[in-house]
Amino acid sequence: MANAIKNKLADMTGRNSSDKAATEEADKYRLVVTAGPSYDVSTHSVVHVNTDTPVVVENEFLKAKIKVRIRDYRGLPSTSPATSPYFNDPVHASDQYSIAFSFVPKVDIPSTHAIWGNDFDHPIRDRLPPGFNYAFKIVKEFIDPGLTCDAYADKPWLYGPSLSCWFIFRVDEQIDLAGGEDFPAPVEDKAMSEGGSGSGNAIRAHLNLPENNHKRRKHFLAEPHRAAFTFEKGRLYQADFYNPYLDFGNFALKLPGFSLKVLKYVDNKSHMLRYVFKNRENGDVYFNVNFKLLWGEELLSALAVDSGDANMQNLSVGGEGVPAQADINGS
């Protein structure tokens, strides 16, 4: 079994790589992506990256369908393709990843306090790289002026208004969840476009939402514009969050004038990046997506689950967890 796992590692990284040192470094880590309705990872499902299979998330606030695309993906499940047709679109030619989702609220969700971003359950100030404050200034000035951050708090966070953070946003038709009506997940082989459909277009027109996604993001930087918008109970919304700055294939951060290999700042606590859609005022979590690096014994255990070892069907990996075999293999 051990040899089989080692062979899987070699196959997943490309044992014929001309850069032996880079390959050996990459061999030590694998990425696994999960999504769920709360911070509790026992409620999460493994995301089958770069596939047409969404993770369905549901709680008291909404029902959502989530897809993740990552360029040069070498993570788990091992059946996930290395890329997606999504990256063939000229709009996304330089993007490294995408978190795309559709959702239908079960209750009205005011957008004033609806945020999107990253947070942590533990301090990371001792793991912040040199130049972090400079890097954040670059992000705020050139990428998203709506972001605010406290990286030195006991529970660090980086948030922005969801309606100005999401790069693509759609307002679509009403959906009768209570009556059993279904709704589509983001399409895998086609990039999402800004806009809406049916009565959703009428809502956008009534609120004078710009048709251009850049102008719409700027529009929602103004608090009065956010206060005028409510995620309506029973209406379908779709969004896509993407950028070229986080390179999950090479574990690197690449900003204008600033780049960083992140592996040397990873330890047993700072090895998971969490994206969350939540209410900042009362803490209600609508859904979150976790990008977790596995290594060492945790990785070997996860690879055994991925291989379908009958003795490991009930495995849950580590304190922060990777869902068990049925979830990883999609059965």
UniProtKB/TrEMBL annotation:
It comes from the Eukaryota. Residues 1-24 are annotated as: Disordered. Residues 30-293 form the Domain of unknown function at the cortex domain. It holds the Pfam family Duc1. This is Upf0590 protein. It comes from Acrodontium crateriforme.
